[in-house]
């Protein structure tokens, strides 16, 4: 990875002018008045490149390190935020990511870094061989699946520098994948000390959720499709050519984007552009839900946050339905830039294509392209909570009478065998029997789907406030750790604050204390320090014991 160059940043100078009513009216009627004068993405990158050279010491950069731009955000007022990944002697650095913040004129304002440890390794030659690291990861995958007779197990190690877990060290990051006894995929990423062979960390790698169509969960919904000859394809040309295909109940096996086998993904077609029957007996009914969920998620991010597609580049993802054999999961996969949905086992879950599941899983893609929150510890809980929070806001945005907005996660897909009415409950997460209502020093040891409860509870309190109430026909009762009464500021402001915190301030290692800081910074940017919104963010975090 090449180092950034020292380039001269462009500058804009403004001069004061006398303004009259006539001047304002003329300006408003002029086409030029609506031109976007914000710095371009290229200008922001150029300004940031200069800042990297001028502030290399503060950013912990040395001649052994390289940087690459992951994301760029330019605010309406011209301030710029450029997110970087880092390498050390050409090895990826876990926890090396940082965000450079620039003023509207390109001047350096500050930075947020995932870690502040200075990297200096005596050698990048491992003592533990790659095959040994692969074996350790395979053993960890088998152990995590409780001795299930896994099949087609493979592992591919990658040498990295780990700066997330104390002093930077050479490590193997190994993704081990296989299939369980039903043929469904299992995967685990294992981080191994390349000197001693000790396991540093491990986490699950599969992140767990115009025609018309009759869906399973959302009623009859509009669909944009493509006519090819006399046949319609379930491909939406208005949203980056997103499409939905049938995986034929097969699965695939991939390691770091290299696939040993892939499930088929035959694009759904229809003769009359009226899709599905609303019943599982018609395979296209689940496809209607998946396509609809993609559409609503795309529209939410574009219309509410100005994000053009999951990666922000206008390119559509795609969906695969009917994946695996009675597969009780849905997941986003960066390697294919796609959403995958299982049919469920019928007893615990139905087909996992509900609207909030789609919003949840596709938000993992947004997180991957922005903060890239590590999928373990408190960062992993925040990763899952981000998908719960923004996926829930997608459901509210859709305003679908067949699946009205609520603060229940996955309520449409659960069946009587699950024993609860939803996967998770944002007003009081502990109602699921496992999730944390409040932060404690042990929260990071929980499964990420349960440690997410702290942020989910914060989000509910920030939007709706504490205490008992009925919203959209659902009863909630949200307690607080400190006995305080929290007054909500609404879903729209919650979404604006969380999205800005995610895309501008959070990094791969952000924990709950860091999330408090990130959301307060976001609230300050959007509404001002000391504003009602800023104070509400602080109060909601204190109410879940994040101080």
SS class: alpha+beta
- The coarse overall form would be globular
Overall pLDDT confidence: 90
- Span between termini: 39 Å
Proportion in helices = 25-40%
Largest sheet: 9 strands, mixed
- The tally of strands reads 27
Share of residues in strands: 15-25%
| Helix run count | 11
Low-confidence stretches: 1-33
From the alpha-carbon coordinates, what is the Rg to the nearest angstrom?
Answer: 24 Å
Structural write-up:
With 547 residues, the protein is an alpha+beta fold. It is built from 11 helices and 27 strands. Strands 1, 2, 3, 4, 5, 6, 7, 8 and 9 form a 9-stranded mixed β-sheet that branches. Strands 14, 15, 18, 21, 22 and 23 form a 6-stranded mixed β-sheet that branches. β2 and β3 form a beta hairpin. α6 packs across α9 and α10 runs antiparallel to α11.
Strand and helix map with partners:
Elements: H1 21-29, H2 41-54, E1 65-74, E2 80-88, E3 91-94, E4 98-102, E5 108-113, H3 130-144, E6 151-162, E7 169-179, E8 185-193, E9 199-204, E10 211-214, E11 220-223, E12 226-228, E13 231-233, E14 235-236, E15 242-246, E16 253-255, E17 258-261, E18 266-267, E19 269-270, E20 274-275, H4 283-305, E21 318-323, E22 330-333, E23 338-342, H5 355-369, H6 377-398, E24 408-409, E25 424-425, H7 448-451, H8 453-464, E26 467-471, E27 474-478, H9 491-505, H10 512-527, H11 532-543
Parallel strand pairs: 3-6, 10-20, 15-21, 21-23
Antiparallel strand pairs: 1-2, 2-3, 2-4, 4-5, 6-7, 7-8, 8-9, 10-11, 12-13, 13-19, 14-15, 15-18, 16-17, 22-23, 24-25, 26-27
Helix pairs in contact: 4-5, 4-6, 5-6, 6-8, 6-9, 8-9, 8-11, 9-10, 10-11
């Amino acid at each position: 990875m090449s180092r950034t160059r020292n380039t001269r940043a462009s500058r804009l100078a403004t001069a004061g002018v006398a303004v009259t009513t006539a001047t304002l009216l003329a300006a408003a009627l002029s086409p030029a008045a609506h031109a976007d004068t914000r710095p371009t993405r290229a200008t922001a990158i150029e300004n940031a490149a200069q800042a990297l050279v001028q502030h290399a010491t503060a950013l912990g950069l040395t001649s052994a390190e390289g940087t690459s731009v992951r994301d760029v955000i330019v605010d309406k007022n011209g301030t710029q935020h450029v997110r970087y990944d880092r390498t050390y002697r050409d090895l990826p650095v876990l926890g090396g990511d940082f965000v450079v913040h620039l003023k509207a004129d390109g001047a350096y304002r500050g930075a947020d870094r995932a870690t502040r440890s200075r990297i200096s390794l005596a050698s990048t030659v491992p003592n533990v061989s790659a095959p040994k690291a692969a074996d350790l990861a395979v053993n960890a995958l088998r152990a995590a699946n409780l001795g299930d007779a896994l099949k087609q197990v493979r592992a591919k190690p990658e040498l990295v520098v780990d700066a997330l877990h104390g002093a930077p060290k050479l490590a193997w990051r190994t993704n081990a994948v296989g299939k369980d006894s039903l043929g469904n995929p299992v995967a685990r990423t294992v981080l191994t000390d390349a000197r001693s062979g000790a396991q540093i960390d491990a986490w699950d790698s599969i992140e767990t959720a115009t025609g018309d169509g009759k869906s399973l969960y959302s009623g009859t919904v509009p669909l944009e499709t493509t006519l090819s000859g006399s046949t319609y394809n379930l491909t939406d040309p208005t949203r980056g050519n997103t499409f939905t295909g049938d995986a034929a109940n097969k699965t695939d096996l991939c390691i770091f984007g290299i696939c040993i086998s892939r499930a088929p993904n035959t694009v759904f077609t229809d003769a009359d552009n009226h899709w599905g029957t609303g019943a599982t007996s018609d395979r296209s009914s689940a496809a209607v839900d998946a396509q609809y969920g993609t559409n609503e998620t795309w529209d939410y991010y574009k219309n509410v946050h100005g994000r053009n597609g999951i990666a922000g580049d206008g390119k559509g993802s795609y969906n695969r339905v009917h994946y695996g054999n009675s597969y009780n999961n849905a997941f986003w996969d960066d390697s294919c830039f796609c959403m995958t949905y299982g049919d469920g086992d019928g007893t615990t879950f139905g087909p996992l294509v509900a609207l909030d599941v789609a919003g949840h899983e596709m938000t993992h893609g947004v997180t991957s392209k922005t903060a890239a929150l590590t999928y373990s510890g408190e960062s992993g809980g925040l990763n899952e909570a981000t998908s719960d929070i923004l996926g829930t806001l997608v459901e509210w945005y859709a305003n679908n009478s067949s699946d009205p907005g609520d603060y229940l996660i996955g309520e449409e897909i659960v069946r009587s065998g699950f024993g609860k009415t939803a996967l998770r409950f944002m007003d009081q997460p502990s109602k699921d029997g496992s999730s944390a209502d409040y932060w404690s020093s042990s929260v990071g040891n929980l499964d990420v789907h349960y440690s997410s409860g702290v942020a989910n509870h914060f989000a509910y309190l920030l939007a709706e406030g504490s205490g008992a109430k009925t919203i959209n026909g659902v009863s909630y009762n949200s307690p607080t750790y400190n006995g305080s009464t929290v007054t909500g500021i609404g879903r729209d402001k919650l979404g604006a604050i969380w999205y800005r915190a995610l895309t501008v301030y959070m990094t791969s290692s952000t924990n709950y204390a860091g999330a408090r800081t990130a959301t307060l910074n976001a609230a300050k940017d959007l509404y001002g320090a000391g504003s009602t919104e800023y104070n509400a963010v602080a109060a909601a975090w204190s109410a879940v014991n994040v101080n």
